[in-house]
Amino acid sequence: MRRVPSLHRLRTALTPYRHRLFAALLLGAIAVNVVQFRGIDRERYREFQAVGRYETADIAPVIYENGGWHRQRYGLYLGLGTLAPGATVYIPMTDAYADDRETADEVATRLRVFGRASRVEWVSAPAVAAGPGFDPAPYVVASGVGGARGAPWALAVDPARPRPGGPTDPDDYLRDIVTGEGPRRSATARTFALIRWPTPRPGQTYAYQELLVETSLLPAPLRDELPR
Amino acid sequence: MITELLVVLLVFGGGCAVMRTAGVRGWGLPPLGFLAGVCLLVGVGFVQVTTGLPTTPYVTLAVVFGVPVGWWATRWRRGGAKVSVPLALLSLAAVGGAVAVLRVANMFKWHPDSITYLMAGRLLAEDHYRSTASTELLTTRVLGVPLLHAPANLGGALYLRSITPLLAAATLAAVVWFLWQARRTALGGQRFVAVAALAGLLLLTNNRVVFSFFYLNGHMLVAACVLLVAASGWLLATGAAGDRIPRQALMTMQILAIPVIVSTRPEGFLVAVLVLLPTVLSARIPRRHRSAVLAALGGTVLLWAALQVWFFLDRDTGVPVSVAGSAVLGVAALAAIPLLKWTVVERQGGRLLAVAEGGIWLGLLVLAVRTPDTLVTSLDALYRNVFEGTGGYGLSIAILGGLLLLGWLLSPALPHQAHLRFPLTTFVPFGLILAYLREGAYRAADADSMNRMIIHVVPLAVLFLFVLVTGGVGQTAGRLAGSGATLATPTRRAIYRVLDQRSGKADGSPDRRKSPVGPLSSLDSK
To answer: How many angstroms separate the CA of residue A203 from the nearest CA in chain B?
Structure first.
C-alpha cells in the first residue's frame, strides 16, 4: 500500500517511542484482562466459567445434576449403564423408533454410549411394542420428568438382581450413583426392552413414558415375542 | 490414570519423533511435538474412519507412536536427529506430572455439544461409529474432537482429562516459538524474554483463553492448527526457514495441521482453504510443498465427503448440498495442483489473495441484500459479544483488534504479512457468511458458535501483533528490490540467495535487480 504522507510522518515521529508505547498499551490490555477476569466468571453459568472445579471428573453426574435438559435426554440411558452395563436391549418393531432412522440411530447411540448396551436389536414384537401389558410401576427404580428435550422416562429392573442402595424415590435414586465411566459389563447377562409405555406421568403433557424394562419382568406371552 | 498417562506419552513421543526428525530442536521441541502428536492422533484416526478400517484407538496409537519413532530411529542410526537424553527424560517427566495433576483437577468445561462429541468418541473407540452414529452426529459433531478423546475409552473414561489443557499450553508455547524464530536475532535474549512474557500474559489473562484450556470442544485444536499453518507459511515465505529453522519442520507442521482443521469443524474445509491460500499462492515457497499441502487439503476433504456420502446413502437419506459442495472443493484443490506451474499464479499471488478476500466480502454483500435480517442480527450479536462482554471475552478482543490495527499502522512493513493477516481479516466476513449457511443468525451469548469461533484466531492474532510491534528492533534498514520491505539481515541474505539460485548467480552478494518471478512483495502489500 502506498503510504499516506501524514501517516508516514506520524510513524517517523513515533519511531523513537514506538516500542515503549506498545509496551505500555500491552500492559494496559493485560491489566484490563486481569480486572475483568473475575467479573466475567461471576456472570457465567458454572460450566462456562474459566476457573472452577467439580467434585468429580466424571461428566455423567455433572450433566445429570445440571438442570433438566440432560436428565431428559440421557437420564434413562445413564440409569441403564449404571445399573446394568453390558445388557442386551431389544427395541420392539412397530415402535416409533423404527419409523425414523435418525431417531433410531440416536437411540442406539445413547444406549451404547451411556447405557453401555453390548447389543441393541430391533425385533418384531408387536404386543410388546403396544405397551408392557402389565404394570411395571412396582419395579421402577429410577425415573425422570419430561420436557422440551425428551419424554418422561422410567427404568424397571428385576428386584432379584443386586443393585446399589439409594433413595426410594425413583426420581432421586440415580443422583449419587450415576456414572458414565463405570464397568462395561455386568457379571451376568441381562436383557431389557425399550418401550413407549402408554401411561402418562402425572402432571406431564406426554401421553407416554419411555420405559426400559428388564425382560424377566414381562409376562410370559410378551417375553415369548422376544428372542431367547 | 495409567491409561491416560500412556496415551498422552505415546502421542507426545510420536509427535516429538516427527518434529525432531524434521529438524526441530531445543525448547520448542516438546510443545511442537505435542501439537504434532495431537495432529497425528486425529489424522490417523480420520483415515481409519473414512477408509473403513477398525476405529479402535489401539491401532491409532500404534501408528501415531510407531511410525514416527521408526522414522526417527532410522535417522538416528545414520547419525542424525540426536536427542539429549536428560532433556527427553525431563520432558517426559513434566508431561507425566501434568497428566497426574490434571487428572485430579476436575476442571473440565462443557456445554451440550461437548456431550455429543464424547458420545461420538466412545462409538469410535468401540468401533460402532459407522454402524450406529446418526447423520446429525456425523455432520454437526465432526470427527476431530471425538478422535482426540476416543483413547480415553480404553480406560473406561469418556474423555482425556489432560489433553485439552496440554494442547492449549502447547499452543501458547508455539506462539512464543514462532515469535522466537522471527525475532530472536533482532531482539536478543533478554528483550525476547520480556516480549514473550507480555505475549504469554496477554493470552493467559484472557478469560476465554483460560476457559479454552479446559473446554471439551475443538476450538483450541483449530486455533492451534490455524497458527501452525499460517505461521509456518509465513516463516517459509520470509526465507528465515533454512537459515535457522529447518524448512522440513515447517512444511511437516502445515501438512499435519490441515487434515485436523478439515475434520474438527463442520466448516473446517473452508477454514483450511482460507488459512492455506497465502501459502499456496506464494512464489517464495517451493512448488513441491505447495502441491503437497493442496494434495493434503484435497485428499482430506474428499475422504470426508466420501464418508458423508456413504453415511447418507446407507441411511437412505438424500445427500445434502453442503456435502456435494465439499466434494467439489476437494476435487478443485486436487485439480489446482498442476495450475501451480503457471507463472501467473506465482506472479499475481498478492492480487489473487485480494480477489479472494474481495470475493468473500462480495458474497456477504449479496447474501445481506437477499436476507438483511440475518446479517443485522448477527452483527448486533457480534457487537454485544465483543464490546459489551456478553461473549465472555470482556473487552479483550476489542482491545486486541485495536492494538493490531495500531501496530499495523505504526510499525515498519512486515514482509509476507499476508500469511498472518489473511486468516484474520477474512475471519469476520467468513463467519458472517456462515450465519447464512447454518440454521440462522448468531446470538448474543457465550455459547454462540461465532463467539466460540473467535478463539480460532486469537493465538494467531497475538503472534501477528507481537511480530508487528517488535518489527524494526535491531534491523538493518535494507530495502529490497523495490518491495519497500525492511528486512533483518539474515532474512535478506536468504532472499538474495534464493534469487541468486534462480538466476544462476553463485556468490550470494546482494544486488538490486528485479525478481524473475515479479516483485517479492507480491504478498507483502498492506
So the answer is: 27
